[in-house]
Amino acid sequence: MEDQRQASAATAFASKPGPVEPISKEDTTISPSTSIRDSYKVRASVLLSRPPILTRDLTPFEKAYFLYQRRLNERLALPFTRYFYYQRGTPGDVEWKRKIKERQTPARDIGVYNAYSKKGRKDELLLGATESEPEEQMEALLRDAEVEVQNPEDGQEVKKEKVERPLPKVTQADESGDRRSLDRALKSSLYLVVKYRGDQRWWFPEGSLEGKESLHTAAERMIVQTGGVNMNTWVVGNVPLGHYVRAYSQAQRDDKKNLGLRGEKVFFMKARIMAGQANLQGALEDLEDFQWLARGEIQTIFQPRDWNAVKNILGER
Predict the structure, then answer these.
(1) In whole angstroms, how far apart are CA 42 and each of 11, 196, 259, 261?
(2) pLDDT value at position 14?
(3) What's the CA gap between 99 and 112, in Å, rounded?
(4) DSSP 236
(5) Could you tell me which of 291, 297, 276 has the C-alpha nearest to residue 192?
(6) Do the beta carbons of residue 97 and residue 89 sit within 8 Å?
(7) φ/ψ of residue 198, rounded to 5
(8) By C-alpha distance, which of 286, 270, 290, 268 is closest to 278?
(9) Distance in angstroms (rounded) separating the CA atoms of residues 309 and 306
(10) Distance between CA 269 and CA 46 in Å, rounded?
(11) Is the dihedral of CA 245, 251, 254, 258 positive or negative?
């Protein structure tokens, strides 16, 4: 029993905390870290584009659907009151009779169709019919716009005055393959791609940020340095469309800043061209060539890695 009391006293004495020694200022000083921090160089790239000028071609289903809707409207609409617009016996009335005899309907672009006849509900097109084709409808509108004029000398010969035809959708630049022209591929968006001198790679205009420059300001500067001042452009917004990490094969060490550059982060800014044209003579960058290309054309000339980085941010049209 005496041995147990002595052991308890020894344990209590050992558990008492001893005096706390003060910590000097020298012990609280934190030594700077000697590890290299990973870093990336920030660059801005501009997706300068010309939007589509023309609408895309309709699918066969869309062509048939729109023609069906116009013929259905002819069936449901009230009959055309001719004498409200043309006085009986006037040249306008005579011209109307001639045209309605040819097409059998007031509408000018739905083919020969009489909505009030016994076959009015049989408005589906037969296989191989061309009434739903936009080119056929354009020709029908042009024929309808022609006016018959009698020869003033004998009063017998009748001829039709030709009307001005719309411009073709395929331009001279399309036929000649001029990829520097903006008057081509009118149904698609065109993007400016450049080739820097000494580099065989095609890419978008790109450059490093200077000082405390923002991505928006850097994009505006890159447009001027790449394409000159003869372009009226607009950088859309301050937020990039996406970014692309271009890693170095070996990190570049900066001992002064204690940084290790692992690569470059390229941020893509969206921009539109309103007027003008790129000019290599007015460019500040050392460029060898430039082109205005559609999405499909860009895929054929970009390297696979570059194409994978931008394919999801380029428009389908």
Answers:
(1) 65, 19, 14, 11
(2) 47
(3) 11
(4) -
(5) 291
(6) no
(7) 90, 0
(8) 290
(9) 5
(10) 5
(11) positive
Q: Which of 148, 147, 130 is nearest to 139 (CA)?
A: 130
Write out the E strands in the chain.
37-50, 147-150, 158-161, 190-196, 202-203, 206-208, 231-235, 242-254, 259-276, 287-293
**pLDDT score, position 280:** 83
**Nearest residue to 191 (alpha-carbon basis) of 179, 178, 199:** 179
20-56 tens-digit pLDDT: 555 554 555 555 555 667 778 899 999 999 999 999 9
Residue pair 148/162 in contact (Cβ under 8 Å)? The answer is no
Residues of 80-92 as b/e, b for ≥16 C-beta within 10 angstroms? eeeeeebeeeeee
Predicted local confidence at residue 154, as pLDDT = 61
Backbone phi, psi, residue 74, to 5°: -65, -35
Lookup: tokens for 99: 């045209």
Angle at 136 between CA 130 and CA 137, to 5 degrees: 115
For the chain, list residues with pLDDT below 70.
1-36, 123, 149-158, 251, 254-258
Instruction: State whether the Cα torsion 103-107-109-111 is positive or negative.
Output: negative
pLDDT digits (tens, 9 = 90+) for 63-92: 989 988 888 888 787 777 778 888 888 888
| CA 263 to each of CA 153, 202, 234: distance values in angstroms, whole numbers, following the listed order | 84, 20, 29
State the pLDDT at residue 185.
93
Alpha helices in 77-129 (DSSP H): 82-85, 91-103
- Token pair 């205005």 is found at 292
Q: Give the tokens for residue 135.
A: 């080119």
Count of Cβ atoms closer than 10 Å to residue 207 Cβ:
18
The candidate with the shortest Cα–Cα distance to 133, out of 67, 68, 71, 70, is: 67
Q: Which residues contact 219 (CB under 8 A, 6 or more apart)?
A: 44, 46, 235, 269, 271
Buried b (16+ CB within 10 A) or exposed e, 46-73: bbbbbebbeeeeeeeeebbeebeebbee
